Amino acid sequence: MADPDQVLARNDERLRRLAIGEAAQAARARRRQRAAVAAGKRLSRAAIVAGGIILALILWGLIIGPIGTTALVLAVLFGGVSVLVAGLSGGGTPEPRAVADAAPALLPAVTEAWLDGQRRSLPALAAPQVDAISARLATLESQLASVPAADPVAQDVGRLLGRHLPELVDRYTRVPAEQRSRTIDSDGRTIETTLVDGLRLVEAELARASDQLAAADRDALVVQGRFLETRYGGETLPPA
């Protein structure tokens, strides 16, 4: 007969892997959404620049006179370069300072965009934790939008995302790549596993903050449910 503790441990591990898989899917969907939005903005900028150049050429021909061949070629070349620059500019990874200065309601989205830009600098071992943090940020984005900036939980999240998380990632990236897998403790910890443990703590703290922000709504729902039971529990509801 299987040991109940082992069965519970296996079930917990399956649930943990399922949660990580769902977080990874949600993070990939949000990355695709951000990429699509950024591409749309770049195309819009390029179209505006191209339209402005065409309009300028038309007005030049109507007001000043015909455009010579040389001027037309130069205008086309300048226009092509301008459209290319407009299409490729913008949409970069936010700087850590932008994360630190973001308002609480905007902090999750800015942090997620910044963290997504750091993926190539982080080890593959950290990918599940990065996805888990992205999933927590997606939940916190709507929660922080409804609380004041002075809320203690919002301030804690602000310090965590605006200072502690960027410092963790920055200090890891400063370590030379060839030294990141070196054992630094007697228990076999490396720079990479230390980073992953730090990201895991960040994700756990974000989960705690999300739970705290939802506590008031949960309590209000329980009170409302009890009120409805007291007010209408003894009455027969009309047929739908």
Summarize the structure.
The protein is mainly alpha-helical. The chain is 75% helix and 0% strand. The protein has two domains: 4-88; 96-230.
Structural features, described:
This protein is mainly α. It has helices at residues 4-63, 69-88, 96-101, 107-117, 127-144, 152-174, 191-232. It has 2 domains: 4-88; 96-230. The mean pLDDT is 78.
List keywords for this structure.
about 240 residues; mainly alpha; 7 helices; extended
List the helices and strands and how they pair.
Layout: H1 4-63, H2 69-88, H3 96-101, H4 107-117, H5 127-144, H6 152-174, H7 191-232
Main beta-sheet annotation: none
Distance between the termini: 50 Å
Number of strand elements: 0
Strand content: under 5%
